[in-house]
Design brief:
The structure holds 2 protein chains of 2 kinds. By secondary structure, chain A is α+β, with helices and mostly antiparallel strands. Chain A has helices at 4-14, 43-64, 108-121, and strands spanning 18-25, 30-36, 72-76, 80-86, 95-102. Chain A has a 5-stranded antiparallel β-sheet with strand order 2-1-5-4-3, with helices on both faces. The mean pLDDT of chain A is 88. Chain B has helices spanning 17-23, 30-37, 69-75, 81-90, 93-98, 103-121, 147-164, 188-195, 203-210, 214-226, 250-264; strands at 42-46, 49-54, 57-62, 130-133, 145-146, 175-177, 230-232. In chain B, strand 2 and strand 3 form a beta hairpin. The chains are: A alpha+beta, B alpha+beta. Chain A: It comes from Streptomyces shaanxiensis.
């Protein structure tokens, strides 16, 4: 079992190419914890903005009548990957992990796999 | 022709909004900002809630408008109500951890309850706050928050609600369901809120029943209000003019909502 801080540290330490991570509540748009990022990349702003991405996708699935849940959402920039992993635990309703990866150094398949493992350890 | 030079009129004094804003401590609570600066420990009582401080950081918050930590933990089956009461009665954080609440879950629930109650505690009030110097709250070590971060988040939350739907009437009034002609699909978490709108319950009641943070319920209700699915119960009117036939017309209803929204801007 891990708390917020150790979970985020594990994201940055164990996932190759990870430059920032946040645990976000997507109803309020608040980051419950952030690690990494930089002066030019404010993870709190990214957290609030990406709640709209999650919400829009959920609404679309609702309109389409799709019953499956979202596991993760990948956004590919020219030099970065942004990975959003929804947390499914008992009390984790409404939270997601947000991971920023350097596209040159990251192994996407591995990162997804590791993020899934980290999410399973975060028993919330 | 000679040009008569006149001295230009003196510049009007203009208040610098940015410095005025900073002087007021970000516009939330100058008293709280001062307490943070002097690293105070104690309890700040405000009209809509209470903030517990330890060395200038906020460690716990309570508000009658927001479900407390105990409610968030017990309603989701993380903890039984008796264990919570024991832990609260003996002020023993260890008792929570020994009964199956993981440190991570406790931290997240506490952070969530703290920001939630603080949103209401820091709402504009009509009476001045009171600070009692004292000892630390029993949950002080779980998730202390710097005052500046709390104020920033509270302002962000106010702006978020305003952006979704500018009319704050659904925050406090008893709520009624409206049935628009073409009702949009409602996501499951909003649907749970909508199902409890019955003409009597207010946002705070719904939050308590669902065991969810009250601010989240306000967000859902503003989205539902924006979609035309929920509106505040109009106050019992002493008016006796005949029923308004136009109210049944969906286009008139829509125009009224647009008017209300514009007025609320």
């Amino acid at each position: 079992m891990a708390n917020t801080e150790t979970t985020l540290k594990e994201c940055l330490a164990s996932i190759e190419g990870a430059t920032g991570a946040a645990l976000v509540d997507y109803t309020s748009g608040m980051a419950l914890g952030t690690l990494g990022g930089s002066k030019t990349f404010d993870l709190n702003v990214a957290a609030a903005g990406n709640t709209d991405v999650v919400r829009a996708k959920m609404r679309t699935m609702e309109h389409l009548g799709l019953k499956g849940g979202i596991e993760d959402i990948l956004i590919t920039l020219s030099d970065q990957y942004h990975l959003i992993r929804l947390i499914t635990g008992r009390g984790g309703n409404g939270l997601f992990l947000y991971l920023v990866l350097d596209a040159k150094r990251a192994n996407l398949a591995m990162a997804r796999h590791q993020l899934k493992k980290i999410e399973e350890d975060l028993e919330v | 022709m000679t040009v008569v030079g006149t001295t230009p009129p003196p510049r009007l004094p203009v208040r610098d909004r940015t410095t005025a804003h900073q002087r007021a401590g970000g516009g939330v609570s100058p008293m709280l900002t001062r307490l943070a600066e002097e690293r105070a420990t104690g309890v700040l009582d405000r009209e809509h809630g209470t903030l517990h401080l330890v060395e200038g950081r906020v460690v716990h918050a309570e508000s009658p408008l927001a479900p407390g930590l105990g409610m968030l933990l017990t309603l989701h089956g993380t903890l039984d109500a008796e264990t919570w009461q024991d832990a609260e009665g003996s002020a023993d954080e260890g008792r929570l951890l020994r009964h199956g609440v993981t440190p991570g879950a406790l931290e997240l629930a506490q952070a969530s309850a703290l920001y939630d109650a603080a949103y209401f505690a820091l709402a504009p009030s009509s009476t001045p706050g009171r600070f009692r110097y004292g000892t630390a709250h029993w949950l002080a070590s779980v998730h202390p928050v710097p005052v500046a971060a709390l104020e920033r988040e509270t302002l962000r939350r106010r702006a978020l609600l305003r952006r979704i739907w500018p009319d704050p009437a659904t925050d406090a009034a008893p709520l009624i369901r409206a049935d628009p002609v073409a009702a949009p699909a409602v996501p499951p978490r909003q649907a749970a809120v909508l199902a409890r709108v019955d003409g009597v319950r207010r946002a705070a009641d719904i939050a308590r029943e669902l065991g969810r943070p009250a601010f989240h319920t306000l967000v859902h209700l503003r989205r539902l209000a924006a979609a035309g699915l929920v509106s505040p119960q109009p106050p019992p009117a002493a008016e006796d003019h005949p029923p308004d036939d136009a109210a049944a017309d969906p286009y008139v209803a829509l125009l009224k909502r647009v008017r209300d929204a514009l007025e609320a801007l």
